[in-house]
């Protein structure tokens, strides 16, 4: 089959890590007889430099016309870069929000997996993580506080900022379905996370998730308050399979979840909607401090490409092959600097990509 992939290298280390993911995809194409055609698009700071905005309407249309989107990372150093002197809706991250909304990618999947080979990097005590853990955060991505009305006004000489948190039942229902569908392919456990002891939007969330769970009798549903969940992720991460939650809570919990694996440079993510087209990107950011130095870990991006094959193109065995090659490389002792350990072999970005390609064969 032929697949048209919109590639958005972005800023910072984005171009370097995306280049390695493309190498891996090309090799998959050769082995399994697919052809991947790439269209490079600008988003983030590089788009601001070229067009004055972080994402043009034309670029969004081009992304829409693709079979799927592979993204590196966007954004720069907030303290140093001129991009952050622009108004908030013109900054690099605004491009990310616009593409999520524009492609209607309302379901964001962020895995938190403890890789056996890297368990030494996990900041949790061994007795907590023994046997490993493997869960995902299923984050609602196009609603809630991120997309509610916001403004800053002055009342009687006092500045006042207002952000609005709304969810309607349809928005909750469709993300809940994703949560249960993915749980069906995993360990059949959904933990729905909210703040129902305070927020109306959370009370509606809980009600609708419960309703949807009726369609998935095999899946065990539990509810958890978000503050408790933040605690449970460090206390006992093994209890989780699918954490299902709204946009803002998911933003925060997914960072926490990636941190407890000890290897954020390893974690991919997928943003999906009703159609097959998805947006795939590493969970980490653009790391401007190490950009262009061949130091970045390309594995999260390579694994994001694997997720693309699995979720958007239904190429299960090809995705498995990439994941197996990554494991093999780690087993052989190769490490980029972020996951380097005593007695291991230090590799740069390019060499890591080449090794993954080598172990694919
Ligand atoms: C993320 C990021 C974004 C978000 C920012 C950059 C807007 O933190 O993808 O988690 O908050 O969604
Ligand atoms: Mg975040």
**Largest sheet entry:** 10 strands, mixed
Structural class: alpha/beta
Count of domain modules: 2
Q: How much helix is in the residues?
A: 40-55%
What kind of assembly state do the chains in view correspond to? single chain
Q: Please give the order of strands in the largest beta sheet.
A: 2-1-3-12-11-4-5-10-8-9
Which CATH first-tier class of the largest domain would you pick?
Answer: Alpha Beta
**Which fold name corresponds to the CATH topology of the largest domain?**
Isopropylmalate Dehydrogenase
Q: Give the distance, in angstroms, between the N- and C-terminal Cα atoms.
A: 20 Å
Structural shape:
globular
Uncertain ranges: none
What hetero molecules are in the model? 3-isopropylmalic acid, magnesium ion
CATH architecture of the largest domain: 3-Layer(aba) Sandwich
E-strand count: 14
Mean pLDDT: 96
Our count of helices gives 12
The fourth-level CATH homologous superfamily of the largest domain is Isopropylmalate Dehydrogenase
> DSSP strand (E) fraction?
15-25%
Rg over alpha carbons: 20 Å
Order of helices and strands: EHEHHEHEHEEEHEHEHEHEEHHEEH
